[in-house]
């Protein structure tokens, strides 16, 4: 039996990162190296997220995708960090998971 937090670490967080990487690359025109530095990732990890070799374990619904898009903007503008933004999104997802029980 897997704990909800294990599921989030294995599936949700990589999916959030994948979307943030994709948005920073496509919408903000950032190069892989700059994205990696901003998010505390390796260049290889960024490439894997963009190639969708990572972060496919959780499908983001429209509301969560909107939250990710807003988070990517705050990260790009250096108003917030990836850690703070992922925590906000994960808390929303955990709240929803609790409502389904």
Main beta-sheet annotation: none
pLDDT below 50 for ≥5 consecutive residues: which ranges? none
Query: What is the beta-strand fraction?
Result: under 5%
The best one-word shape is: globular
Number of helices: 5
Q: Fraction of residues in helices?
A: over 70%
What oligomeric state do these chains adopt?
single chain
Radius of gyration: 13 Å
- Mean pLDDT across residues: 92
Structural class: mainly alpha
Tell me the number of strands.
0
Measure the end-to-end span. 16 Å
Topology pattern, helix = H, strand = E: HHHHH
Please outline the helices and strands.
Blueprint: H1 4-26, H2 32-39, H3 43-50, H4 62-76, H5 82-100
Describe this structure in words.
- With about 100 residues, the chain is mainly alpha-helical.
- The protein contains five helices and no strands.
- It has helices spanning about 5-25, 30-40, 45-50, 60-75, 80-100.
- Helix 2 (about 30-40) crosses helix 3 (about 45-50).
- The longest helix is centred in the first third of the chain and has 23 residues, at about 5-25.
- It is globular.
- It starts with a helix and ends with a helix.
- The model has no long low-confidence stretch (mean pLDDT about 90).
């Amino acid at each position: 039996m897997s704990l909800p937090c294990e599921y989030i670490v294995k599936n949700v967080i990589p999916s959030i990162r994948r979307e943030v990487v994709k948005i920073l690359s496509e919408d903000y025109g950032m190069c892989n190296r700059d994205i990696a530095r901003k998010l505390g990732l390796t260049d290889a990890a960024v490439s894997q997220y963009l190639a969708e070799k990572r972060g496919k374990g959780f499908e983001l619904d429209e509301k969560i995708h909107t939250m990710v898009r807003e988070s990517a903007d705050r990260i790009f503008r250096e108003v917030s960090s990836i850690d703070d933004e992922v925590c906000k999104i994960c808390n929303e997802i955990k709240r929803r998971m609790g409502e389904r029980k």
